[in-house]
């Protein structure tokens, strides 16, 4: 199998690289923000390759490989982290697959222009990897014109920035597991009805949030896929979250591996046979992940492919964090500066890498859940007994 990109892809790469070189802000200004999202939208770089059977809502009719090229160039240029990626890469394809024409016309243009940001209301306390155990409810109100939402979501990325949240909630009273769930689009600007609480992590940052819904309202026309069909819609979205996006991640992974390797060479740790062997293994496994992702690029007939990808990169990244600490040795236990009440501790990049990657095999569906999906849906093995 040929894993190289074609001439058209390389021409697209040159175009992407030139645009980024011209429009990227300098140095410290490269921080995530709404202005950068709008710049990407104006340049036509949001919504690459969105299917056009429902309308030309995206900005460019890019092929799948051109989408990968853009993501690679974006990562190589060290462009700002995206605030709009949940809307662009998860919600938009979901609306195109399951939404109606009015929903597509209302939400997709604003996403493509970089004007509206989204967060994802899936996981709950007690319903993380076991998403079907969720208890958030959505009850029809106002004569069926709206839904009233009550419950708690957790680990909600970008909830403090988002304008909207796509929420999985239970709309059928007394329903169990994946039955009776619905997929709703909920505006976040509802003071007194929606509260966002930041969650402080081991790294000291607060990238995630807990979101409390207390009678929050969603319009009935913003129910996607029909009432009670939320599980089917949600699973289609998760397949996109865990699939080809790994190719984008791998650019960042490669940069992190180079940082660890460089440190090992500078400190002499690479002279140790065990460390050297682990560095080589990390490199070889990263190449294998890339080839596997390219092999399955655009595949829709392999229900286990997204779960295989999640298992591969989650474990790889966690092992890289552990290797970074081994390479640093005793210095890994020491912070960058003295403790202050307003700044409890500072970490270097590799210390943050280690602490953050402890969660890689848990979030987005734990390794145990991924193995069950592979066994049951891809291999056809008997389902695990569940209450």
Give an overview of the whole structure:
The protein is an alpha+beta fold. Helix content is 44%, strand content 13%. The protein contains 11 helices and 8 strands. It has helices spanning 7-23, 34-43, 64-76, 85-98, 101-112, 230-242, 246-267, 273-295, 305-328, 349-357, 367-378, and strands at 118-121, 137-141, 146-153, 164-170, 181-187, 194-199, 208-219, 223-224. The strands form 2 sheets. A 4-stranded mixed beta sheet has the order 1-4-5-8. Strands 2-3-7-6 form a 4-stranded antiparallel beta sheet, with no helix packed on it. A hairpin with a 4-residue loop joins strand 2 (137-141) and strand 3 (146-153). Helix 3 (64-76) runs parallel beside helix 7 and helix 7 (246-267) packs antiparallel against helix 8 (273-295). The longest helix has 24 residues, at 305-328. The mean pLDDT is 86.
Write the layout of secondary structure elements.
Blueprint: H1 7-23, H2 34-43, H3 64-76, H4 85-98, H5 101-112, E1 118-121, E2 137-141, E3 146-153, E4 164-170, E5 181-187, E6 194-199, E7 208-219, E8 223-224, H6 230-242, H7 246-267, H8 273-295, H9 305-328, H10 349-357, H11 367-378
Parallel strand pairs: 1-4
Antiparallel strand pairs: 2-3, 3-7, 4-5, 5-8, 6-7
